[in-house]
Amino acid sequence: MAKGLELKPAQLRWQCDPKLLRFKHLKEVSSCEWIIGQPRAIDAIKLGLNVKYPGYNIFITGPVGTGRTTAITKLLDDLKVKGELKDLLYVNNFKNPDMPKLIELPGGMGKKFKHALERLIRGLKTNIPDVFDSEEYQKRKQRIVEKYGNRHRALLKEFEQEVEKQGLKLTTIQMGPYVRPAIVPIIDGKPVSLEETEKLIKEGKLTEEDYKAIIDKIRALEVDMAKIYSQIKDIQETANGELEKLNEWMVKPVVANLVEDIKRKFPGEKIADYLDDVLAAIMSSLERFLKKDAKDDALREYNVNVIVDNSETKDVPIIFETNPNYKNLFGTIERQAVMPGVMSSDFLNIKSGSLLRANGGYLIVNAFDALIEPGVWPALKRTLRNGVIDIQVFDPFYLFNTSALKPEPITIDVKIIMIGSQWLYYLLLHQDEDFKKIFKVKADFDIVMNKNTTNINEYASFVKSICDSESLLPFSKEAIAEIVEYSVRIAGRKNKLSTRFNIIADTIRESDYWARQANKKEVRGPDVEKAIQCWRKRMNMYEDKIQEMIDNDILMIATKGQAVGQLNGLSVYQLGNYAFGRPVRITAKISLGKAGIINIEREANLGGRTYNKGVLILSGFLRSRYAQDQPMAIDATLGFEQSYSEVDGDSASSAEVYVILSALAAAPLKQELAVTGSVNQNGEVQAIGGVNEKIEGFYEVCKAKGLTGTQGVIIPHANVEDLMLRQEIVDAVTAKKFHIYAVKTIDQGIELLTGIKAGRKLKKGFEKNSINYRVAQRLAEYASKMKGFAKPEK
Q1: Residue 204 carries which DSSP code?
Q2: Contact residues for 519 (Cβ-Cβ < 8 A; gap 6+)
Q3: Measuring CA to CA, which residue among 111, 101, 104 is closest to residue 85?
Q4: DSSP character string of 606-627
Q5: Inter-residue contact 413 to 360 (CB < 8 Å)
Q6: By three-state DSSP, how is residue 118 classified?
Q7: Which pLDDT tens digit goes with each residue over 136-171?
Q8: Closest CA relative to residue 476, chosen from 33, 28, 32
Q9: Which of 546, 491, 555, 775 is CA-nearest to residue 659?
Q10: 306 pairs with which residues across the strands?
Q11: pLDDT score at 467
């Protein structure tokens, strides 16, 4: 009955013929400088890079190691677009310092403008004192001082004479740190204060009438004195005005000439307006330029803050932001301590982020890293939506007072390239309505590519590039063939090659290590095999522990004999990037009842959704085949023995059908065979995942217990093209020590497991003495018994 179902050794593994490699020695091969196996993703990236309309940012998806970062780096390097780059500068807003002004200049001009302003201020700190120290200035200043000084003195002298005529004296009184003028009486030829005058009254030296007359004179003169000092103040203000005019007449031409020179070098309306403000500010605070002991930042409002400098950037900027937090992406406004406990900020504390450095070019960030950083995603969406970035301090917890600065917003033109996973892309697509508007291009990197001669030889180019860049030993054709075979194994299909080049690159490096350990001058096939074996050995401790429990009969697995309602299913354990298979005992027990199929795993809350669906599907198959003329009056309990964690997947559903049929037909199943495969309601066996690991897992158990020559595995026929088994198993099959069967239907499988024909469906029932006939007979007996238990109607 197994005729035609058993697979031949050639079907179990694809062998890479070294003749497929179009070279004799690896040195003849060119190093790989292109992206392998991702035409769909490359076309999408090229579209996104070249379309300049809003929203055509790129989201690159795919597993790690498929070349996402390498591909975008290579494509951007090849792009070599020369754009008009701009330097971005913030300068002081002299009219409103809390709102710094933005100046945009062609690339490389920002630093020159900054140096020009520095030279201006440095020169004025010398030129302005020189003007003030000049003989011409001093003469003109002296004339103004003397002119208004004489008026001042004449007024005071005239008033003093009037005071003295009244027998009084004009003097000054100290009041704390201040001095004020006062009028006091003269008694016995000496000025006397009012307090002393009061004492003279008490002593009888001065009458009340005389004291009152003195006070009246003083009050009348104080009114005149107020008028005099008001006139003196006007004289001083007039003098100061003339001195300011003198300063402007003498200094302004010097400053204006220097400012105009900067205007000619840096044309533009915005710069001209700013330089006019600079000139006005300088002229209004000339005295600050006279202080020789001033600190370095005493004139910091005249500095220029170049936040983006493209003086050394030749092509468009390409920025990889590895730490995309808010500050690194959008910039910030730093604080400086002006005194203990007091922080301050001005336009010189504005710092740019990656978005501004990439302005006019491309910014590459990791999507997950950006999303987990507080505040980054909303700010990034807002920036891309509006095309404007507003630099602010990000302080979500209000630990510090935020800065009052509001710098002028910056218009940006940057292409964002995000690298992330598939699930993250679809999460954003469905949960964020703005996402599809700002990331219109998806570049999806595949984990496999077609296996053909061209791609196989491109693998050789990849090996060559790793060897050249990392100074590894050259690989022989046989070693590269082993690498290609390992790639097919990773891909999971004989007609595919893996594009998980990070795994392949690690295998290449480890193969070089083992070749050097053996003092070889070339990496050969056995070195690659050893690298793969040693990697498995490093990862399979848990696998060995399970095997040890099977060897010690702690986990009960039979590989000989026969049993009714018992079979070896196959499961896969996934531990990170390592997977292995091991058998698990599946049993079924039948009794008279109405519950139908009882899923123990589900009842114990250990069944996953896919597993539970598989049990429901096999129930539908059984009812469709055996319950057309009679009810299924049974209770059939299904269970994974010694399974204490969640079971998921439907790959055991065919095995579960087999144990139920075995229990109903009382037909023992061969324990030397293990089964994997899902079943549909038509009784067809469907493909499953992890077929190589499952076969290898049962082989290891059989080898440990002793190969009998009858042991083997039944797999779905649809999985034949997925087989890429270890050479040891291929050799065992060749020697008839192990067998692998591929079935398409449940009937084929049950015949292999019982040695009894399944039985065709006839007009009435099934072929006699077949499995289906025996199952139908058993169900008929149960149905008849169930009728006997039914209560008669009243």
Answers
A1: T
A2: none
A3: 104
A4: -B-HHHHHHHHHHHHHHHHHH-
A5: yes
A6: helix
A7: 878 877 887 887 788 777 877 887 787 777 777 777
A8: 28
A9: 775
A10: 89
A11: 93
Look at residue 211 and tell me whether its pLDDT is greater than 70.
Answer: yes
In the structure encoding, which two tokens stand for residue 104, read together? 């945009």
Structure tokens at 43: 């076309």
Give the pLDDT confidence score for residue 572 in this predicted structure: 94
Please give the pLDDT value at position 533. Answer: 95
pLDDT digits (tens, 9 = 90+) for 485-543: 999 999 999 999 999 999 999 999 999 999 999 999 999 999 999 999 999 999 999 99
**Neighbour tally for 443: CB within 10 Å:** 25
287 pLDDT band, cuts 50/70/90, is confident
Distances (CA, A) of 281 to 238, 278, 301: 22, 5, 10
- The token duo for 487 is 């790639």
What is the pLDDT, as a whole number, of residue 315?
81
> Residue 770: left if φ>0, alpha if ψ -120 to 50, beta else—which one?
beta
pLDDT of res. 400: 54
Q: Which two tokens stand for residue 65?
A: 């190691």
What burial class does residue 766 get, using C-beta atoms within 10 Å of its C-beta: 0-12 exposed, 13-18 middle, 19+ buried? buried
CA distance 716 to 731: 22
pLDDT at position 331 is: 92
Task: Give me the pLDDT at residue 165, please.
Answer: 78
What's the CA gap between 305 and 345, in Å, rounded?
13
**Distance separating alpha carbons of residues 616 and 611, to the nearest angstrom:** 9
Relative to beta strand 415-420, strand 58-61 is parallel
Q: How many CB atoms lie within 10 A of CB 518?
A: 11
Contacts 24+ apart (CB under 8 A), 513-521: 515/473, 516/473, 520/473, 521/473
**pLDDT surpassing 80 at residue 174:** no
**Hey, what's the torsion of the CAs at 323, 324, 325, 329, to 10 degrees?**
120
Q: What percent of the chain has pLDDT over 70?
A: 95
Report how far apart, in Å, the C-alpha atoms of 141 and of each of 125, 129, 337 are: 20, 14, 41
* Residue type for position 740: I
How far does CA 255 lie from the centroid of its chain?
51
| Helix, strand or coil, per DSSP, at residue 103 | strand
Q: Radius of gyration over alpha carbons of the chain, in Å?
A: 48
Overall average pLDDT of the 28-50 stretch: 88
- Where b means 16+ CB within 10 Å and e means fewer, 643-654 reads beeebbbbbbbb
Q: 3-state class of 735 per DSSP?
A: coil
Nearest one of 104, 33, 107, 60 to 415, comparing CA atoms:
60
Tokens of 63: 């597993």
DSSP characters over 435-487: HHHHB-EEEEPPSEEE--HHHHHHHHHHHHHHHHHHTPPPBPHHHHHHHHHHH
